[in-house]
Design a protein that fits this description.
The structure is a homodimer. Helix content of chain A is about 5%, strand content about 60%. Chain A is globular. In chain A, a hairpin with a 2-residue loop joins strand 2 (about 15) and strand 3. The model of chain A has no long low-confidence stretch (mean pLDDT about 95). Chain A is mainly beta and about 110 residues long. The interface of A and B includes residues 24, 25, 78 and 80 of A.
């Protein structure tokens, strides 16, 4: 069944200290708007899911497979499953939109969805 | 291999008259930023791919499986494969971000990617 809602009107789900998410779970994939506070570090990690994303506001220095890049609005990325990545939000924080295929079941559990 | 780039700096791909897209093709899924000119109609259509999306700017009246909804910034949607949908951009046009799982191979061909 189709889902429609103002995603950022949901109660945010704490993803980690300084990072809050607004997920939309589909069947094959999911969307996730993530707000990251200024200077917050997202430690290097990897998962089998493919991740695609785009910076909606602010800046984040991301590390992908050892390479560091400063990303700002409209910068997009595709991270194959298994590739280690992480980031540190810029001085004004950032909002990114992430996509995961398949659905992150750990996020579904975290969100109680 | 990881892809990173400013998506809207790409040459836009004409999706239909009045609609231009900036796609990022992954392996399992894809992102697509779509700019729609004021009043442009996207005719009702369906596809087997799951579609998730969010309005980034402007407004669009979308029809999902017969139901009409006016969507604005941060309004998100999930459309299961096979569900008929379409839309009409508002008076200022709109920018939406769409996700398709699996990849729309017709879009990859259109983009010459």
């Amino acid at each position: 069944m189709t889902q429609i809602r103002k995603l950022t009107a949901d109660r945010p789900v704490e993803l980690a200290p300084g990072a809050r998410m607004f997920p939309l779970f589909g069947e094959a994939g999911m969307l996730n708007v993530v707000d990251v506070d200024p200077g917050t570090e997202i430690p290097l990690h990897s998962h089998p899911h493919e991740q695609l994303g785009i910076v909606l506001a602010g800046e984040i220095t991301m590390t992908f497979g050892g390479e560091q890049r400063l990303l700002g609005p409209d910068d997009a990325y595709q991270i194959p499953g298994g590739v280690e990545h992480g980031g540190r939000a810029g001085p004004a924080g950032c909002r990114v939109l992430d996509v995961f295929v398949p659905v992150r079941e750990d996020y579904r559990e975290l969100a109680g969805a």
